[in-house]
Amino acid sequence: MPDVHASAGIERPWSLSPDEVSGQLGVSADDGLSADEILRRRAIHGKNQLVETKAKSILSILADQFKSLIVVLLTVAALVSIAFDEILEGAAIVIVILINSSIGFVTELRAVRSMEALRTLGQVSTRVRREKKTVDVPADELVPGDIVVLEGGDVVTADIRILTSSKLQADESTLTGESLPVSKDPGRLAAEIPLAERTNMLYKGTAVTRGSGEGIVVSTGMSTELGTISSLVEESVDEATPLEDRLDQLGRRLIWATLIVVAVVAVGGIMSGREVLLMVQTSIALAVATVPEGLPIVATIALARGMLRMARRNALINQLSAVETLGSTTVICTDKTGTLTENKLTVGAFITRSGRIDVCPDPVGGSWFEKSGALVDPGESPLLKEALEISVLCNNASLQPEDLEGKDGVGDPLEVALLAAGVKGGVSRGELVEKRNLRKVGEEAFDSVVKMMATIHTQGVVFRVAVKGAPEMVLGACERVRTENGTLPMKESDRQHLLEQNDEMGKEGFRVLALATKTVRNADARPYQDLVFVALVGLRDPPRKGVRQSISSCLRAGIKVIMATGDQAVTAGKVATEVGLVDDGDPEVVSGGDLKPPADLSPEEREKLLGSRIFARVTPGQKLDLIALHQDDGQVVAMTGDGVNDAPALKKADIGVAMGVRGTQVAREASDMVLKDDSFSSIVTAVEQGRVIFDNIRKVVLFLLSCNISEIMIVGLASIFNAPLPLLPLQILFLNLVTDVFPALALGTGEGDPHIMGRRPRDPAEPILNRQGWSLIAGYGSVMTISVLAALVLSLAWLGLNDSQSVTVSFLTLAFAQLWHVFNMRDANSGIIRNEVTKNRFVWGSIALCTLLLIAAVGVPGLSQVLKTEGIGAEGWVLVVLMSSIVLVVGQVHKLLTSSR
Length: 901
What we know:
Blueprint: H1 18-25, H2 35-45, H3 58-64, H4 69-83, H5 87-119, E1 125-130, E2 133-138, E3 147-151, E4 159-171, H6 173-176, E5 182-183, E6 201-202, E7 207-219, H7 225-229, H8 242-271, H9 276-290, H10 295-312, E8 315-317, H11 321-326, E9 331-334, E10 346-352, E11 355-364, E12 367-371, E13 374-376, H12 382-393, H13 413-424, H14 429-436, E14 440-444, E15 452-459, E16 462-469, H15 471-477, E17 478-483, E18 486-489, H16 492-507, E19 511-520, E20 531-540, H17 547-556, E21 560-564, H18 569-578, E22 590-591, H19 603-611, E23 614-616, H20 620-632, E24 637-641, H21 647-652, E25 655-659, H22 665-670, E26 673-675, H23 680-720, H24 729-748, H25 771-797, H26 803-821, H27 841-859, H28 861-867, H29 873-884, H30 886-899
Parallel strand pairs: 9-21, 9-24, 17-20, 21-23, 22-23, 24-25, 25-26
Antiparallel strand pairs: 1-2, 1-3, 3-7, 4-5, 4-6, 4-7, 8-26, 10-11, 10-20, 11-12, 12-13, 14-15, 15-16, 16-19, 17-18, 19-20
């Protein structure tokens, strides 16, 4: 291999011919690089990456913990204590600051690292030719000299000099600002030409919007144009979701309300003759305890854990805000192939002018093909053989020579299935090229409007055109038909008969393509004129396992499922019936030809379309109209897509869902969520998790605020009636750290109500706390307040305990009441013993930890001295258990009454 100058970069590769670029980079376009050469070049150039955005450092996360209002309030409390010579209490508050900051630091660190780990799951891959094989490799493994195979929908992952192209266009708006796609051609250009006019180059960060071709990598990583001109952000930008914004707004409103209340408590206490220091410290402690500063952290943890759960179930979230939107989804508009079906396409039958030839599941007597029960040898059936040849020639996938099932194929699953059928019939592209010199010299890339694809091949002194596409489009372009007796003119009766055969295959659940060919003297001749029809080919794609149950789950959850596919109506109707989308065997299917833009619809037409569930022969533009139609109706729409033309619809949908297996990289980047397995069931799982996350955060808010409001009411009422303070400042802070934080975190990580998909979707505008939520907060807070004050009175009047012991009783009563209150957060329709809260192991862990800390608060000498607690004896503990249990009993009775309505 010649010396490679790529380490210094190629000067102006656009000014060189493709052969000159290949020569300088020491690579053959037909062979690609060897494994040893790839390793050598990677050692020189490094990974194909831009300077990575720095992860949020541990120090910055730690510093953030000291920027909140809660720390300011605690610092004021510490300074006041020290100013009044209460050194012990001042030191204790400093310890509280450190403990609180430590909890916030650990939880935020886990959330941030979880989010960073999720980003690594969405690695982009690139199709390259190496050692004469076409393979998919991670984009960061590209090296200069790699031969890249390009198709519409690919994201360009390095700077590439185009070698061959067919209708190749690229969106370079991210680099040049040019809004329209730029046509690309391999011809050499002048050396001095601006970047926007380099039509034989593709640049990292842009996207192929149409066509196909091949290119050679000339620059990677920071040597690319993007690496040179990009101003890289050094620190990641925090992404605040609407949910977190609403929590932040709630917290700020509560801060001001709390400050007013505690100011009243402080003034009232001082006016009633209490010590100024005690009331100032108590007021600050109340402010700290009642401000739900932990809510954003809990929300982040809940979102991050939910995203990790989704990732484990093959749903990768690109946008954090999508998690909460998922929970309010009311319409899922899904494709058919690979989403509702397995996307394990196999060729099941060919239909030629002379009849149907079935492809057997297993070979019989050495043959995979049979006709009317008799075995068929492709070598003795010219029509079948020609159909197989077109199948492998008009094809951009690759397959190993002996791969009969297409398991190791690279490329579109449909094209891989056609190659596998060729292997079964003894027809391979390599053999056609080597023995018959049918080399590919041109291609007319698939177009979603034309719905056909063509390749042009040498055939002696003429050229052979191979075409595949939608049957009605191909048949419309055919003037002749191949028969066993030669080529005959295509009669209208022939065309009608074949269209009827197409419908019959569709009713059997086949995905049907038409195959055609012709011979031309000029490779630039129009490919879709004067074609010769050869065969229809039917491909089977069985419904995915579990998809019927998933659709049923959606219907129970009040989510409408719409199937919008490019396939023909009969196939769409058959699959819709098989997966349970509709019940009857002859469902109504709306054809894309009958769709109008929403603005052109009459009220009757609009109503009909809103009630329709199956749409066939739908273009990407019509998918956009369907989304707009349902969004105008007030629906929250999730939309699936895989092609570059689906990107606008994915962007417009409330939740854009891209296919991870067969989807283009452009579609993935335009989406909010990527399905790693392309399965509809993964969408349903993601919707369920979205509901669970919102539900968990709502439970956390309800729990924290009801606990916090009880603390304000307890101290406030005691101050008003000049009774002994049931809670001392450091006791309040201790409760805030122990019985608030740990149970709240546990609730935020719960797996949710198993029956959550039995509810109707929530209104996306619905606040975290509605009227019922605020009523519950006031109710639960009042019950805990009455219980604690009653325990204080009983300990003084009935048990005869001293003031310090009675305060200890009220402190422990509130602490355990808050712990038991966790179990009131279960769903009203769940079981008392087994429910989403009792099955949460983190809840039990938090209760066990908090119980040990509360016992230590009374029994450990140093801690009890700081908290000013005393032993309360067996009778005191009985009183604590009884009075703290009241809130649990009241809560469970309320749940029973609510669930019975």
